[in-house]
């Protein structure tokens, strides 16, 4: 399979080089596209200095728009699959080959690197939210996904058009439920671990995390009610 790793990066000057070095060393067969999402720091300069394949968004457009730009690139350049890969160092590139193998062997359309496939969830706010979203996806689609909030997901080419053209499809858990329902997408998970963020701070503060979980749950329910 010809796989593209899409690496959204917004103000990731402290972690981008380490992430790229790790990714290129572990997966030399995987092409990489960095989406510099209107960063105000030296992220763009780091991409230029190191010769990273990258797109510069004119302003900070957000994860959905950045990922959509990456998917359009993958669609136009003949990639068989695209994997969402964080720039902050949390994702381990060693799992990408296992994800690609699962996609090929199991004829999967979406493969998720799951933190909970072989272990129990914790009891933090994020873990509780993840369990709630997992339950809603199972209730509305019949599909059990242990880690719908994992940001490390691989998508097969047949779903590229949905991301490239659709206004309501982004790299989020509610989109997984939509794709299962409207495209009969087959979802697989592979067991994975993730590191703590290498540098910087997550935008998902407690208040934002609650808003994110609530919005995601409502999106899943509303889509099923009004499909």
TrEMBL record:
Residues 6-162 form the Glycosyltransferase 2-like domain. It comes from the Bacteria. InterPro entries: Glyco_trans_2-like, Glycosyltransferase_2, Nucleotide-diphossugar_trans. Gene3D superfamilies: Spore Coat Polysaccharide Biosynthesis Protein SpsA, Chain A (3.90.550.10). Belongs to the glycosyltransferase 2 family. This is Glycosyltransferase family 2 protein. It comes from Kribbibacterium absianum.
């Amino acid at each position: 399979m010809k796989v593209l790793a899409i690496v959204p990066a917004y103000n990731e000057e402290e972690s981008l080089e380490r992430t790229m070095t790790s990714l290129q060393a572990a997966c030399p067969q995987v092409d990489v596209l960095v989406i510099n999402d209107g960063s105000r720091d030296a992220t763009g300069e780091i991409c230029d200095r190191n010769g990273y394949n990258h797109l510069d968004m004119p302003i900070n457009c957000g994860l959905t728009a950045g990922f959509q730009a990456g998917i359009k690139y993958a669609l136009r350049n003949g990639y068989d699959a695209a994997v969402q890969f964080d720039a902050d160092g949390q994702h381990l590139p060693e799992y990408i080959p296992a994800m690609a193998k699962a996609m090929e062997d199991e004829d999967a359309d979406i493969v998720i690197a799951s933190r909970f496939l072989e272990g129990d969830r914790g009891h933090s706010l994020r873990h509780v939210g993840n369990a709630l979203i997992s339950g809603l996806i199972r209730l509305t689609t019949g599909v059990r996904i242990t880690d719908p909030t994992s940001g490390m997901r691989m998508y097969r080419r047949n779903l590229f058009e949905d991301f490239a053209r659709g206004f309501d499809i982004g790299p989020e858990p509610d989109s997984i439920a939509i794709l299962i329902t409207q495209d009969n997408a087959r979802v697989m998970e592979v067991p994975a671990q993730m590191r703590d963020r290498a540098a910087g701070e997550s935008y998902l503060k407690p208040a934002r995390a609650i808003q994110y979980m609530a919005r995601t749950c409502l999106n899943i329910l509303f889509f099923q009610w009004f499909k």
